[in-house]
Amino acid sequence: MEGVVVRNIRRADASVVDAFARYGVATVHEAQGRTGVLDAYITPIYAGAHVSGSAVTVSVPPADNWMIHVAVEQCREGDVLVVAPTSPSEAGYFGELLATALKARGVRGLVIDAGCRDVAELERMGFPVWSKCVSAFGTVKETLGDVNVGVVCAGQWVEPGDVVVADDDGVVAVPRDKAAEVLEACRAREEKEAGSRARYQAGEISLDVQGMREALAAKGLRYVE
Predict the structure, then answer these.
(1) Cα gap 194→115, rounded to integer Å
(2) Please, what is the Cα angle at 185 between 182 and 190, to 5 degrees?
(3) What is the C-alpha to C-alpha distance for residues 139 and 152, in angstroms, rounded to an integer?
(4) Contact between 169 and 23 (Cβ < 8 Å)
(5) How far is 150 from 98, CA to CA, in rounded Å?
(6) Which 8-state DSSP code applies to residue 82?
(7) pTM above 0.85, yes or no
(8) For residues 27 and 189, what is the distance between their CA atoms, to the nearest angstrom?
(9) What is the C-alpha R_g of the chain?
(10) DSSP state of 37
């Protein structure tokens, strides 16, 4: 399918999407059964950014960013643009001008399985990008792709309207229809970790806090003098 733009996608409740910003990518990944993390080569172009938002997805041909321009119109406050080329590309699909247009619409960031450029300008304007690479290599506007269809981005299937969480540790996608459930699991995990943290601060070690000794002994671990 090429040349399709799906309008008015369903998104998770805004309060649920926003609440994911309280939790790191690692927490969300663990809370949903160690799933959803994009491949490790997707990294932030600058440190310190942390966003959650609803995915607007874009399928693009290699070295052609035409459909990103088309996708801008479909974005709204609280979205994260997720861009996936149909074949591997390291071209610089995205820069400061597109970021300016997206920021004006309230888009919180970009995840792209390809290149990004204008890094200094993007950091100055506070528009975060998680990308495969930084690349000045230019793109053309010749071939159609799709907007708001399911895409494979850096090894993960992402549907339009899924929740995307991104920080210094990478990017994780949460299926829209499971977002509330995963959010509750994040809360429970954070509460558990808070209890563990207090015990560590009191001087206990993980062998006892996490009850590892019995399992280690069962595996045959021995202490010798």
Answers:
(1) 38
(2) 130
(3) 21
(4) no
(5) 22
(6) E
(7) yes
(8) 7
(9) 20
(10) B
Residue in 159, 134, 129 with CA at minimum distance from that of residue 44: 129
Contacts of 159 (CB under 8 A, 6+ apart): 55, 57, 150, 175, 176
Cβ neighbours of residue 72 closer than 8 Å, sequence gap 6 or more:
98, 101, 102, 105
C-alpha dihedral, 32 to 36 to 40 to 42, nearest 10°: -130
Q: In whole angstroms, what separates CA 98 from the centre of its chain? A: 19
What the block records as the tokens of 61 is 């041909």
Q: How many CA atoms lie within 13 A of 68 on its CB side?
A: 30
User: What are residue 92's phi and psi, to 5 degrees?
Assistant: -85, 85
Q: Give 110-133 as a DSSP string.
A: EEEEEEE--HHHHHHHT--EEEEE
Cα separation, 22 vs 17, whole angstroms: 10
1-15 per-position pLDDT tens digit? 579 999 999 999 999
Q: What is the pLDDT of residues 137-168, one digit of tens each?
A: 999 999 999 999 999 999 999 999 999 999 99
Burial degree of 187 (CB within 10 A; 0-12, 13-18, 19+) = middle
106, two tokens = 């309230």
**Residues facing 166 on adjacent strands:** 51, 171
CB contact at 8 A, 23 and 188? no
Closest CA to 142 of 201, 91, 214: 91
Q: What amino acid occupies position 78?
A: G
Classify strands 156-158 and 43-44 as parallel, antiparallel or unpaired: unpaired
Coil vs helix vs strand at 140: strand
